[in-house]
């Protein structure tokens, strides 16, 4: 039987990164769906799967080397990214590197994210973004249903990101920026040591 397959590669901590939101929604789906999680398998995560009666829906795979991970990711329909809410009065100021990889893949992205750096990045560069929130369960369910509809109609496709994305986030550009940063720090420290 063919299933809409959503995948995520992470180890959940149950605090900022909790599977409760996605699992509570998956438990309500009345269409064929599968969620694959690649990461450390923890007893708390298995308890959550049993609690929501998702033993036939959620598949846990232990952490994989990058080659095997890429092979598994290539077989999925949708990539899932999640972050918990930042502390009260603060915003999410950290761009998850996973978001860069997800955009580069061109696959549809299901994002359970607070306002902030990662969500802004995905809004700018993702070619197919489906935003959800645990605070809006009805909308969350509708987005999952829309993903299923598009998948069933064979409309979930891989769409390459813009040339602007590649000019800002290609491996070469990021490596160059990092090298430049190291050179700047080294030159600054050398200059400071001469002063003293």
Describe this protein with a few key phrases.
196 residues, alpha/beta, six-stranded parallel β-sheet, 8 helices, 6 strands, 46% helix, globular
Describe the structure.
By secondary structure, the chain is α/β, with parallel strands linked by helices. Helix content is 46%, strand content 15%. The protein has helices at residues 20-26, 43-51, 66-74, 97-105, 117-125, 137-152, 163-169, 171-195, and strands spanning 4-9, 33-38, 58-61, 78-82, 109-112, 129-132. A 6-stranded parallel β-sheet has the order 3-2-1-4-5-6, sandwiched between helices. Helix 4 links the parallel strand 4 and strand 5. Helix 7 packs parallel to helix 8 (171-195). The longest helix has 25 residues, at 171-195. The chain is globular and about 70 Å long. It starts with a strand and ends with a helix. The model has no long low-confidence stretch (mean pLDDT 87).
Task: Briefly characterize the structure.
By secondary structure, the chain is α/β, with parallel strands linked by helices.
């Amino acid at each position: 039987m063919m299933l809409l397959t959503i995948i995520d590669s992470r180890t959940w901590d149950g605090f900022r990164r909790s599977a409760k939101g996605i699992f509570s929604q998956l438990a309500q789906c009345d269409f064929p769906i599968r969620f694959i999680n690649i990461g450390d398998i923890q007893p708390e995560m298995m308890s959550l799967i049993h609690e929501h009666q998702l033993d036939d829906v959620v598949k846990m795979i232990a952490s994989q080397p990058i080659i095997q991970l890429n092979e598994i990711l290539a077989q999925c329909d949708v990539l899932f990214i999640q972050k918990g809410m930042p502390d009260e009065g603060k915003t999410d100021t950290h761009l998850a590197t996973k978001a860069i990889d997800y955009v580069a893949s061109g696959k549809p992205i299901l994002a359970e994210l607070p306002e902030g750096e990662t969500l802004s990045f995905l809004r700018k560069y993702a070619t197919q973004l489906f935003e959800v929130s645990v605070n809006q369960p009805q909308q969350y369910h509708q987005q999952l249903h829309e993903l299923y509809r598009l998948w069933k109609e064979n409309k979930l496709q891989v769409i390459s990101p813009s040339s602007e994305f590649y000019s800002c986030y290609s491996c070469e550009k990021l490596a160059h920026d990092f090298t430049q940063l190291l050179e700047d720090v080294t030159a600054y420290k050398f200059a400071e040591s001469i002063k003293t």
